[in-house]
Amino acid sequence: MLMMRTKLAVILVVSGTLILSLFGIYNYYKTHDRLYGEMDYEINAIATRLSLRLPNQLWNYDFDAIINDLQSESLSRFVYRIEVVSKDDNFRHITAPKDGRFDNEFRLRSFPLIYTELNEPNKVGELIIYEDPRPIDNTLTSEIVSGIVQVFLLDLMIMFLIWKYARAIKEIESSKNYLNTIIHSYKDGLVVMADDHRVTTLNEAARRMFELEDTPLENVSLAQIIAKVVPDSRAYFSQALYGFNTKNLNYELNGEKK
After folding, report:
1. For FRET with 113, which of 3, 36, 145, 157 sits at 20 to 30 Å CA-CA?
2. Which of 61-70, 95-104, 122-131 has the lowest mean pLDDT?
3. Residue 218: domain span
4. 8 A C-beta contact, residue 16 and residue 153
């Protein structure tokens, strides 16, 4: 029984761990794709807005407006810093990186700045946006930690339920053993039958009394017991079994009806 409970505990813990692990992996990749999709969308939106405003500002040497626009757009959580370089290199501005380190470079995207109010489009500069994937990494790390905690808590819950189940089974077995000890140590013969008069319990004294020491319990029948009752005492025996209304009772003795 102990081995069976141990196997059950191992199977449940492993199964729960695998299920939650698979769900965690699926959730990790779904979150990964969603967050990187959001970053791509936001970077492209920033580039679109700046590509509409910066060419005119560079053409008109409105550098203060350029700086203000860059500072405003660099507040995005997915932007590490933004850089603008004019075509003739007479103007360059880089927003301050979020952690104050210029050597902490991430993937950059370059967009040409085209001035379109002349007869022909004229490139006036270049917009460079440095991505900042750290919010994504932090979120994914939180997902991993959350998944590990969920697996740990599930395993604890499964082990607790198995412990409760094992404890209940142990109490039942203890009560059953205690009852069997009392029944089999009882000096008088004790026969317990189900509603269909099938013998369910027979103590040692009863086995000796009815000469059934070598007969397995499942093979003991009421007929075998009644056959050992003294004929004059069968009326009392039947009253104990069926009550006082025994007019129409027939006994089956040794496989024959009488």
Report:
1. 36
2. 95-104
3. 186-257
4. no
